[in-house]
Amino acid sequence: MLFEMLILNKEILEEIVNHCKKEFPLEACGVFAGKGNRVEKVFSLSNVEKNSWRFLADSREQFKVFKEIENLGLEFLGIYHSHPYGSAYPSERDKELAFYPDLFYLIISFKNLDSPEIKAYKIKEEKIEEEKIFIEGD
Fold this sequence. Notes:
alpha/beta
């Protein structure tokens, strides 16, 4: 199994976790962009499902974000979302909706609210592979 590493700095990771905490007890969602495997910018999106067990990002927001990513000369690297009550592992629905096999799927679990669990995956044809996360400045 070949591991790819997702690289984030502490501030970007805090931005993602804070967005997810703010949306708790609902699932939060967003995307991140950068170059190579290094995340440079995070874009939080609205969960139009307004649900604790699933998310659907607002399509108008997605369109604006994808244009901004392109205008910034960045690459769309991945999607993040929270699991307010579940583990940091892709759900069946997450697998079904994983349309981008080359992207990272970052899941933040709040089973333990004081200490969120954060994991990254690649999902190809519903096959899940955990990827390493490197946090710069840690």
